[in-house]
Design brief:
The complex is a heterodimer of chains A (about 200) and B (about 160).
Chain A lengths: L32 E8 L6 E4 L2 H4 L5 E8 L8 E7 L7 E8 L4 E10 L3 E7 L10 E8 L8 E10 L3 E10 L8 E5 L10 E7 L1
Antiparallel strand pairs in A: 1-12, 2-11, 3-8, 3-12, 4-7, 4-11, 5-6, 5-10, 8-9, 9-10
Chain B lengths: L1 E2 L1 E8 L6 E4 L9 E7 L5 E2 L1 E5 L8 E8 L4 E8 L2 E2 L5 E2 L4 E8 L8 E9 L3 E9 L8 E5 L8 E7 L3
Antiparallel strand pairs in B: 2-15, 3-14, 4-11, 4-15, 5-10, 6-9, 6-14, 7-8, 7-13, 11-12, 12-13
The chains are: A mainly beta (about 200), B mainly beta (about 160).
């Protein structure tokens, strides 16, 4: 379609004036996002990592992890840590808002966690059917800005033996640029075979 | 570097249609995102999805959390369609939906959906849903209870693999 330009970039020529630069343009155009890495587990793994982000993700403003994953643990409600730069200092915080199909709940599970941002109730497990994986979209905001702590937001959910949908926020209280991300199964089990993790760079 | 998102289909409503079938979706992508910006022509109604036109009883399991401006609540259910709206949409108010259809082309997983619905005068919600089927999706069916007004848009994107 013919793009519509804001008045500030026209010269009172043939362009029609709109109050918003979005008017008439495609509503959603994520063309400045690239796939940086992807892993589909052939066998179970306790951790999944993305490394060398200083070169792999150079030039990107934000990161996103898209995943479909299960735990090898027996019970649903499984979860994982999201750890940056292998940091195990007391630098992680988290809040969540949850719906379980009958009630809403909100809490914070960390104010100075040491293992990573706790990504709460983000994995199915053996009590759900073998075909049932939890979906998560994790946005990691300004991970290379050395003036800011890195903030995460998670949209996650699954329906299986139990039902969960959650919005979560996380914080890594360190201004270092991120060079590595580790996803570490919380209960000491593993991510199950077939779990998929995709890293996207957002300009 | 591989571009993340590829546009697959865009539909602009003509004001006299309430259902759309997006067919022949390639299986070469990892996820799909369905973006709907719409307004219904009259009254109040819901917006639903089906995959591969599957209307099997209880094929779709969903859990919601939602706020209508005064109350926050959570519900769940299983039906023969995937309902994106627990609350109803009212004519003259705009709604948008961003629907993440995860691993639609994987035959070893049920497809899981994460959806966000926003209507500034009605409700905002977040939903997780599962289509109890490992068949690769090649068709997305969008079903509105009433016609969508002219100019409403439905866009489908696919995410590349590495």
């Amino acid at each position: 379609m013919t793009p519509v330009f804001p008045l500030s970039s026209s010269s009172f020529g043939d362009y029609q004036r709109y109050l918003s630069a979005l008017a008439g343009n495609t509503a959603f155009d994520p063309s400045d996002e690239d796939i940086l890495a992807e892993e589909v587990l052939a066998s179970s793994a306790a951790e999944v990592s993305f490394s060398s982000l200083n070169t792999l993700a150079a030039g990107y403003q934000h990161l996103q992890i898209r995943m479909m994953a299960r735990s090898t643990r027996s019970a649903d409600n499984s979860e994982f840590y999201l750890r940056f730069n292998a940091d195990t200092g007391a630098n992680y915080a988290q809040h969540y808002m949850r719906g379980n199909g009958s009630a809403m709940e909100s809490a914070n599970l960390q104010t100075s966690g040491t293992e990573g941002v706790r990504c709460y109730q983000t994995l199915t497990a053996a009590t759900s059917g073998a075909d049932t994986y939890a979906a998560s979209v994790i946005d990691i905001l300004d991970p290379f800005d050395t003036n800011k702590y890195t903030t995460t937001r998670i949209f996650t959910g699954f329906t299986g033996a139990i039902n969960r949908v959650l919005l979560e926020s996380g914080l890594w209280m360190d201004t270092d640029a991120i060079t590595s991300i580790t996803l570490d199964e919380y209960y000491g089990s593993s991510f199950d075979a077939g779990s998929r993790f995709t890293l996207i760079g957002v300009k | 570097m591989t571009t993340a998102w590829v546009p697959l289909a865009t539909i602009t409503a003509d004001g006299s249609t309430a259902t759309w079938d997006i067919t022949n979706i390639p299986s070469s992508y990892r996820d799909l995102i369905l973006v709907i910006d719409c307004e219904i022509a009259s009254g109040t109604d819901n917006l639903d999805l089906r995959f591969n036109n599957d209307s099997t009883t209880n094929a779709y399991f969903s859990v919601y959390m939602e706020g209508d401006g005064s109350t926050a609540s959570s519900n769940s259910g299983n039906t023969n369609f995937l309902r994106l709206t627990r609350g109803t949409r009212t004519s003259t108010t705009r709604s948008n939906f961003i629907v993440q259809i995860m691993d639609y082309s994987a035959s070893d997983k049920d497809t899981t959906v994460l959806s966000r619905f926003n209507n500034a005068t009605e409700e905002t919600n977040a939903m997780a849903s599962r289509w109890d089927n490992t068949t690769v999706i090649d068709e997305v069916n969008v079903i509105s209870g009433v016609n969508l007004v002219t100019g409403s848009t439905i866009s489908l994107w696919g995410s590349n693999r590495v």
